[in-house]
Amino acid sequence: MYDVLLVFNTNYSLVGSEDGVEIKCQGAMLANWENGTHIHFHNLKFASGSESFLVPNGITMSFHSCTFSNGQRACTNFPICKGGPGCQNKGPKSCQELSRERISEDVRSRSLGPDQVSGISGYPGIQTKEGGKFYVDNCTFDGCGGGGLLVYGYGSEGYIVNSTVRNSGNMGLEARCGGYMYACDNLIENNTSHGICLGPDGGLSHFEGNTIRGNGGEGILACTSRRAVMKGNTIYQNGACGLSLGGGSYLVENNRIYENWFWGILLKTRSSVAIFGNELFNNKCGGIKLDGNYSARVYIDGNTIRDHVGPALCILDWSMQAFLRENTRMGMDISLVQSCMQNKQMLVMTGMPEDELSLYSTSPVITDRNFLRNNAEMTQQRIEEKHYFGECCYYCHKSDVKLMTCIACHMAKYCEKLCQQSDWARHKSTCKVIRQNFTSTIDMTKTTHYAQVKPKTQTKAPDKKKGKRFIVKIQSGKEYERYNPNAQLRIYDETATVSFECVNPSLYHLVVECGKLGAIQISTKKLFCWAHFEGGGCKLVVHLDDLPPYQDW
Fold first, then answer.
1. Which of 157, 273, 298, 319 has the fewest CB atoms within 10 Å distance of its CB?
2. What is the 3-state secondary structure (H, E, C) of 336-398?
3. Whole-angstrom Cα distance, residue 292 to residue 361?
4. Distance CA 170, CA 189 (A)
């Protein structure tokens, strides 16, 4: 290993003469450079603990067959770090103290204001400043501290091809404040936050032929960007939506989007989008969701949208009348709601752009060339009905190869050992339930009473001693909270005599997999199950093999 300070003032090439040459940089600094300076790196490894590569105005850096683990580490739970394991904050106030001063826990992206973010964001392996440019080919970014690559500033450009970006402490790829990014034929996986983030104010960008999987947030998040093309990508098993587009113009064409934990595609806040020829299936909330889009136009043509527990298309009524109806349904005083509707500042706080005068949304153009199949609007599905017990790989969905069967549950199938290992964090909850004959037992001594549920009926309360079956409703956690098996579940019956909160990873996973969307149709799910008490009420056994009809309470 070479521990060096790199200083360049002319065109330069640094080449590893053999594999495994490792450099630990105190910093990639350039002094006395002139516009047009080009620095090339080949066959080198930049170790953990090295500083980020900073590409300033007028400089071009190219990297070929290099490996990166550099960059300052981000807090493990950024952007909502509260000081637990993995916290990197060394300042006078801990992330936990800072988070107590900030009221928002529902942080969806870096585009939110600084008052809503807690934690250290870290620094990526490579980043530009205004006017810098980099080319990356056949490189691996594994465990970079605060993201893989960042293109920042007007005039900056980043080109990434045939590379792998995984296990980063923040985003995989990011372009903002005017930066342009071209990413083609890359593997972007298992990054703490989003796979790709475009914005705020991202420049013209192009993403094609990438595999984007297993990231903690969105597969691709675009917020207040200009224009981008997303074509021929495979996007699956990300912790939020496959694509989340908010503000800008986008072409979404011939992508394969599946098994993401919220929606396949989420559109909001003036996104003009052409959605052509995509295949969307088995996303946990549904296919395509359109929130308030105001004057922006959406065109949906030639897509296959199939096999969702939720709707194929969810077009929300984003009008002043709907705002009044929904808030009064939730118990708000009608005069207070009407007062909010007349206050523009209050409407802006709900997400309305400042240059709009009221809430509205232009209807999308949906052609009859879309193929919609097996999307459930008002049902819930049993575990054994789910697609992954068919003849395809439970993780990558390949079906034209020889499949191996999970030796524990004998139901889930995989095309190779790597797919099985990659999927274990998700499958273990289902696997446990199957091995326990499709039941899950809750220790009532470890639950917390939930008092906010009102009785839906005056029928006889469940008998804790006789062990007779009754129906319970299980609700997942907060809206738009990323997949978190340790989140609190709410479980109650129709009489509200059984009403409690608990942590149960197996039930959480199955509610997300098989349940129906909640009333406001964002991301929380609900599942109705049969249950009975054992041990005089000390244990509640939930049955998952024979679900009752969907209930209206």
1. 319
2. HHHHHHCCHHHHHHCCCCCCCCCCCECCCEECCCCEEEEECCCCCCCHHHCHHHCCCCCCCCC
3. 5
4. 12
Distances (CA, A) of 4 to 32, 103, 532: 19, 44, 66
pLDDT digits (tens, 9 = 90+) for 368-419: 999 999 987 656 665 555 544 567 888 888 888 888 888 888 888 899 988 8
Residue 225, classified by CB atoms within 10 Å of its CB into exposed (0-12), middle (13-18) or buried (19+), is: buried
Evaluate whether 200 touches 222 at the Cβ level (below 8 Å): no
Q: Pseudo-torsion of CA 490, 493, 495, 501, nearest 10°?
A: -20
Q: Report the relative pairing of strands 279-281 and 53-55 from DSSP bridges.
A: unpaired
Q: Which residues of 58-88 are buried (b: 16+ CB within 10 A; e: fewer)?
A: bbbbbbbbbbbbbbbbbbebbbbbbbeeebb
Local confidence band at 114 (pLDDT 50, 70, 90 cut-offs): very low
Residue 311 clears pLDDT 60, i.e. is over it: yes
In the block, residue with structure tokens 């996007």: 235
In tens, the pLDDT along 539-549 reads 999 998 888 88
Q: Is 511 exposed, middle or buried (0-12, 13-18, 19+ CB in 10 A)?
A: buried
With tokens 């013209």, the residue in question is 204
